[in-house]
Amino acid sequence: MMTRIPILKLRECLIVSIQWELDDQTALAFQEDLLAKLHTTAARGVVLDLTPIDFIDSFIAKVLGDVINMSGLMGAKVVITGIQPAVAITLIELGIRLENVVTALDLENGLEKLERELED
Amino acid sequence: MNLRSSVDIITEWDIVAARQLGRNEAKDVGFGTVDQARITTAISELARNIYLYAGKGNIEIKQIAEGNLKGLQVIASDKGPGIADVRKVMEDGFTTSGGLGAGLPGVKRLMDDFKIETVFGEGTVISATKWLR
Fold it and tell me: Could you say which residues form the signal peptide (chain B) (predicted)?
């Protein structure tokens, strides 16, 4: 029943597009898969695109926040892209702050932002 | 008009089932995407609270009407330990689970009406309603 989220490598970056509503197990498996992929590819950055996601609850937000911090520990920067208006509104109303998280409007902007960050 | 449907919350998969049911019902009532997200998120939080704190319970979703107003009511009930200090759980940032679940203040902000009935040692019933504007 559990689906695994594909993780693609492009030059120094990993690209992830989350296409389905995340259940708890898929979210936790993704956390481990992403870190394992960072380890094996030595990628320096990750773009995590959430365009198709139409809601994020506190659990998914915590898993995403954790994976960003964990990636940071492994020396990789994460950019989140494609957060829909409804998702931004509900996250803030729910009281969730994703602090120190780099975001961009879409995948293209996200990759550019990541490449700039990696140059610094 | 009083359409109701419900999901028993026993495993974490039931949290997914409850919020999918909620989203479908919210669409059916005619809520826009932002309110659909609010309702889906609120149901997810309430279902997770049941799973984490009570072990099992039930999420009931009712299409309701009051005069010309249409709305969706979510009733989360369990026979868990109950809440010892309701005022405390309604404070932002209060948690007994190490930060899983954004807590009830968040759910209250996402919905229009919010009511808790809890008896310590017997269980909790939380009712939250969103009105179609």
Answer: none
